UniProtKB/TrEMBL annotation:
GO terms for molecular function: hydrolase activity. Residues 316-572 form the Xaa-Pro dipeptidyl-peptidase C-terminal domain. It comes from the Bacteria. This is CocE/NonD family hydrolase. Transmembrane segments: none annotated. Coiled coil: none annotated. Keywords: Hydrolase. The keyword Hydrolase applies.
Length: 692
């Protein structure tokens, strides 16, 4: 999916609304372009699959400069409604590549947007990936195609690009994937690190999937059957609380054969999926380029925080090499690039962060080493393992964790509020700078007074003035400590060992700063609170440690990277945003009452072809420390499309509550046309809690 995740994906949430548009014309429009670039046409069409389903496609097609000239094809397939929500954003990329001699085929997943058929049973269904294979074959055989196809995208389309590439369709020669995943249970938006995460994304997609088919927006019995009446995906995801065949069916991490299609991979240090790039690069049999920038869930030319660069320029060289047989020298350059953050004070609104680009031929880099530090009895962090001593206990505060944000990524303020409800271990002030790059590892020897808790580990930087910056973190679901496929309860009072990797990070700890390991048993609202109020324990000793991936310190200006500045994108000629307010985030914790509340809201309006579109949403998570089992989520989303004199008003409400044994889920859709109720449908289910 294009993974929404609370504040971590603020730019994506805003972009979801900003990228509204409507390509209602059934013919084609010719666009002019700069000198030496191709002119191109914008065409709406469809392609029929073997089962008769027709997939809607918008072509950005270069106009041949010579008789018989053909072009490679770049495919992107998403459920995000190319004819309304995503047309403006699609245009920025479709026009860029079309001008440079590529046909861009933007396709709506079956059952969504302008495509026919029912909404699939879930994301990345077998039908979706089979469609991608068939699309690649059909596109390679078009009269204007040179027979070579690439696949690309950010988030959802990165996921299905990787999945399709694993199947090796003959015409697919290379992919570009930004913010993807190889492990859908551990590294996706539903179960972060194996722990339940209720994201506003689930609500958003289950609302938008129920919108009528574009561009006619016909409301009839076929529409009700295929879209409005289809069960929301959030029920499926909540029933699948443990790893297994459902999550592993298309996860590359569990395939016997590694990737054999060349891949250009882009990640962000403030994105929850960043580990995927390392996973692919370690095992791929084909050439791989990895770029890891400082931004969030976004493309490098606009991701926040910067510095940014123009990745599309490099993408053209990548496509030229694999799809046009032009030796651009792309494989002669360093293939591993990461932005080294050189340490900064905590802040939630930075446009850029200090640091420099490191370019290396491979990872781990030359001179890299592992430094192991052990928590000490006196809450210190040192290289020598202490003798096993008394347990250090931590009362469970279910609403703690707000400072850490919605997932492992987004910009965070001072972490002291979270650390107040954590066990913290600090190194001595550093005498010289230390840089890390990679995935730190953690081992904890712990015990608990109940069969289930969740642990959080955070790597932090403590400045001399006491400000605490988050470097990276991870969740541990202890039921999966022996096997992800066969979870086991904790034995109350019995010590056990937990190990995990902290998500990929870069950071320079400056002289005078201290390295902090924070260990907690709550990370709200990132993961759903565990149900039992009580106490957990940590045992310092030889089995409790953190391993830091230390790399040689470099100074800015020594890197071999040449970064092109971002280029202005061509704005689509058919629409504009007229009003936007959001997203707005709020987190409140009352230490006296134990109440914790997190909310996010957004509103946007836009005009396209003289039609008015509006979207608004509001989401709320809440829990009380004294009653952690009774956590709650509620969400409301509404889309109002005023198209050619008709007003289509779709709203959806979701409510999730829990107790010690069950989740109680209610989802309601309401459809109005011209102010008159057309249909309302409600789903309700009690779902057993399974180690969540």
């Amino acid at each position: 999916m294009m993974r929404l995740n609370l504040a971590a994906v603020q730019r994506w949430l805003l972009g979801l609304f900003l990228i509204g548009g409507l390509l209602a014309c059934s013919g084609q429009t010719t666009m002019s372009s700069e000198k030496n670039h191709y002119e191109f046409s914008l065409e709406n069409d469809s392609l029929e699959m073997r089962d008769g389903v027709r997939l809607a496609v918008t072509y950005y097609r270069p106009l041949a400069k010579a008789p018989g000239e053909t072009f490679p094809v770049i495919l992107e397939m998403l459920p995000y409604r190319k004819d309304d929500f995503f047309a403006l954003g699609d245009y920025e990329y479709g026009s860029y590549f079309a001008k440079r001699g590529y046909v861009v085929a933007r396709v709506d997943v079956r059952g969504t947007g302008g495509s026919t058929g029912p909404v699939p049973v879930s994301e990345y269904s077998a039908a979706e990936i089979a469609d991608a294979q068939e699309l690649i074959d059909q596109l390679s055989r078009q009269s204007w195609s040179n027979g070579k196809v690439g696949m690309y995208g950010l988030s959802w389309s990165a996921f299905n690009s990787l999945m399709t590439a694993h199947r090796k369709p003959p015409a697919l020669k290379a992919i570009i994937a930004a913010h993807g995943s190889t492990d859908l249970f551990y590294n996706d938006v539903h179960y972060i690190d194996g722990a339940l995460h209720i994201d506003s994304y689930a609500h958003q997609i289950d609302t938008d999937n129920a919108m009528p088919q574009s561009p006619e927006y016909r409301i009839d019995q076929e529409y009700f059957k295929n879209r409005f009446d289809r069960e929301p995906w959030i029920f499926t995801w909540l029933r699948q609380q443990q790893d297994g065949d459902f999550w592993r069916a298309e996860s590359l991490a569990f395939k016997k054969q590694p990737l054999e299609v060349p891949a250009y991979l882009i990640g962000g240090l403030l994105d929850g999926y960043r580990d995927f790039a390392l996973d692919v690069s370690r095992t791929s049999k084909a050439p791989v380029i990895v770029e890891m920038g400082p931004w969030n869930h976004a493309w490098p030319e606009y991701g926040v925080p910067g510095p940014n660069y123009e990745w599309r320029e490099k993408a053209v060289r990548w496509w030229d090499y694999w799809l046009k047989d032009i030796d651009t020298g792309i494989l002669d350059e360093p293939r591993r690039m990461a932005f080294m953050r050189t340490g900064h004070a905590p802040a939630t609104d930075r446009q850029t962060v200090p640091g420099y680009w490191r370019c290396d031929p491979q990872w781990p880099v030359e001179g890299a080493r592992t430094e192991r530090l052990h928590p000490q009895a006196g809450h210190q962090l040192a290289a020598i393992a202490p003798a096993s001593g008394l347990a250090q206990t931590l009362p469970y505060k279910a609403g703690a964790g707000l400072a850490g944000g919605g997932w492992w990524g987004e910009q965070t303020g001072d972490m002291s509020a979270d650390d107040a409800h954590s066990l913290v271990y600090d190194s001595a002030p550093l005498s010289q700078a230390m840089e890390i790059m990679g995935m730190p590892k953690v081992s904890l020897n712990v015990a608990a007074d109940a069969p289930f808790y969740q642990w959080t580990v955070r790597l932090e930087d403590v400045a001399p003035d006491g400000q605490v910056s988050l470097v990276s973190g991870a969740i541990i679901n202890p039921s999966q400590r022996v096997s992800r496929l066969e979870p086991q309860a904790l034995v109350p009072g019995e010590a056990t060992n937990l190990e995990t990797s902290i998500h990929f990070t870069t950071w320079r700890f400056k002289p005078g700063h201290r390295i902090r390991l924070a260990v907690s048993n709550a990370q709200f609202p990132m993961v759903w609170p565990s149900p039992t109020a009580g106490v957990t324990s940590l045992f310092p000793g030889v089995d409790t440690w953190v391993d830091l991936p230390v790399v040689p310190v470099r100074e800015q200006g020594t890197q071999a990277c040449i970064m092109s500045p971002p280029q202005a994108s061509e704005a689509a000629p058919f629409g504009r945003t007229i009003d936007g307010d959001g997203p707005v985030f709020s987190s409140v914790r009352n230490e006296e009452t134990g109440d914790a509340i997190f909310t996010t809201s957004n509103e946007l309006s836009w005009v396209l072809h003289d039609n008015l579109y509006r979207s608004e949403e509001m989401y709320r998570w809440e829990v009380n420390d004294a009653t952690p089992a009774k956590a709650r989520y509620q969400g409301d989303r509404r889309n109002v499309f005023s198209i050619q004199g008709r007003e289509i008003d779709m709203s959806a409400q979701a409510r999730i509550e829990s107790d010690e044994s069950y989740f109680y889920l209610t989802f309601t859709r309401v459809l109005k046309e011209d102010g008159v109720l057309v249909r309302e449908k409600r789903w309700q289910e009690r779902i057993a809690r399974v180690y969540q």
